[in-house]
TrEMBL record:
Residues 44-127 form the AB hydrolase-1 domain. This is AB hydrolase-1 domain-containing protein. PANTHER family: AB HYDROLASE-1 DOMAIN-CONTAINING PROTEIN, HYDROLASE, ALPHA/BETA FOLD FAMILY PROTEIN. The lineage of its organism: Eukaryota, Fungi, Dikarya, Ascomycota, Pezizomycotina. It comes from Oleoguttula mirabilis. Gene3D superfamilies: alpha/beta hydrolase.
Length: 359
């Protein structure tokens, strides 16, 4: 237990900074984490735009993988998650865009590759458009795992029904997820305590996806006993902190209660605008932006309709001269395991591509 506690309490997993008062918000605390190898500035850096309940705790799950593949990663508690100060729904993305330069400056990082999952898609899209200079001009890269698509385009029954729920009822969403996580769903089905999207509540294929995950010991590079303790500790401590971000993130995903997606309110329009920006940068000598998208084999959150719409936005948008877009389907994965299953999901190949500089 002592070894597990020492692992989970690593200083790098529990960083913080303060954003000063602005015209739209008071002084804000932001908690974030880095993988334990972050001081090695010879390694490429990755900024992770996490899912609905994604948080700085995700760095614990990927720490060993990052070390063995040769990358370093930043994970952030968005407002209302962990120790990050909650903010009004209508400025969530603006606050994110204010936060990114702040922690990159604090860490002494000039360029990153971007990685997103699920609800993090909208944050990543705003980042590459509004903060384009944080990407390496020689190898600008974004990896999108199980992208989020609004139900207007996916036509997924689950989300269509959810969109009809009054916005006020979402104030208890994080409590429902906590209940399922602690009382209903086995820990293994949540991939080591990493809370991602609502898919786990409605998974039709329960018990068929996660059975071949890496063991706790292999995930963390420790003994099985210590690995199991790390799993339990990170889940318990994550849930001991605030998870109210999930309420606002759910509203954001559904575009309810005045939520907006910033520059990517309409994906088709966004792709055209991004391509125009990339063409201008290309004339200045910047390499083509590369975007790799990884779809789950079975995704109850966006379905086949959402995948087809997402791919169509990029493939029919006449962007190939400025943006290299590719997509892959990950066998035997769902919306969550496409990220959190370190054996079948996309993370290992994404990390290896970035480490090899062939992204």
């Amino acid at each position: 237990m002592d070894e597990a506690i020492k692992y989970v309490c690593g200083e790098n997993f529990h960083r913080r900074l303060w954003l000063p008062v602005s015209a739209t918000h008071d002084r804000l605390r932001v908690t974030y984490s880095t993988t334990s190898n972050f001081s090695d500035d010879s390694l490429p850096a990755i900024l992770f735009c996490g899912p609905m309940f994604g948080s700085r705790w995700f760095a614990i799950l990927i720490d060993h993988l990052a070390a063995t593949t040769g990358v370093r990663v930043i994970c952030v508690d968005r407002p209302g998650m962990g120790g990050s100060t909650p903010v009004p729904l209508n400025i969530r993305i603006d606050v994110w865009l204010e936060t990114v330069p702040a922690f990159l400056s604090a860490l002494g990082v000039q360029h990153v590759s971007l990685l997103s999952h699920s609800a993090g898609t909208m944050y990543a899209f705003n980042t590459i458009y509004q903060l384009r200079d944080i990407l390496d001009p020689r190898r600008p890269y974004l990896a999108i795992i199980a992208p989020w698509v609004h139900n207007e385009h996916s036509h997924v029954t689950l989300l269509t029904l959810a969109s009809k729920i009054p916005a006020g009822l979402f104030s208890s969403w994080n409590g429902i997820v906590r209940l399922v996580q602690t009382r209903v769903a086995p820990t293994a089905s949540w991939s080591g305590g990493i809370l991602s999207s609502a898919a786990n509540l409605f998974r039709a294929e329960t018990g068929t996806i996660h059975s071949a995950e890496l063991s706790p010991g292999d995930k963390y590079g420790v003994s099985e006993e210590v690995g199991e303790c790390i799993d339990k500790l990170q889940l318990n401590w994550l849930l001991a902190e605030s998870t109210t971000a999930g309420n606002d993130e759910a509203l954001l995903c559904l575009k309810k209660a005045g939520a907006n997606w910033g520059v990517c309110e309409d994906y088709e329009d966004y792709v055209r605008r991004l391509a125009e920006q990339e063409r201008r940068l290309k004339h200045e000598g910047t390499a083509n932006l590369k975007i790799d998208t990884f779809f789950a084999a079975s995704d109850v959150m966006i379905g086949q309709g959402g995948q087809q719409y997402f791919e169509r936005c990029w493939r029919e948008g006449e962007v190939a001269d400025a943006i290299d877009f590719g997509s892959t389907i990950l066998p035997e994965t769902d919306h969550d395991s496409a990220l959190a299953d370190l054996k079948k999901g996309a993370l290992k190949q994404v990390f290896e591509r970035i480490a090899r500089h062939d992204q």
